[in-house]
Write a structure and sequence with these properties.
Blueprint (H helix, E strand, L loop, with lengths): L1 H9 L4 E2 L4 H5 L10 E3 L6 E3 L4 E3 L5 E4 L6 E8 L2 E7 L2 E6 L5
Antiparallel strand pairs: 1-4, 2-3, 4-5, 5-6, 6-7, 7-8
InterPro entries: DUF6510 (IPR045423)
Pfam families: DUF6510
Amino acid sequence: MREQSARHYADDIHVDGNALAGPLSEVFVGDVTVCACRCGACGATEPLARAMVYLNGPGAVVRCASCSAIVLRLTATPSGRWFDLGDGAALCLPAPEGF
């Protein structure tokens, strides 16, 4: 099933991890695209810039460049920016007052 799922996403239009430089620079200091990103599915470790990033949904979906597994989801909501790290783990940076 994973192979079929990977093929499905391979047909979608995506950009590389550099697309996250702007949104993540609002949260983190420095260029986060050079940070190591380890895939929980296959164990590959690559700079975030090598990841496949899909921006055509309500947020950004980051997939492993080696196996296409989801490694991160980033969504902006009225309450703040959500970082879904998988397996139920998430971070939320609250929106500033008056946002």
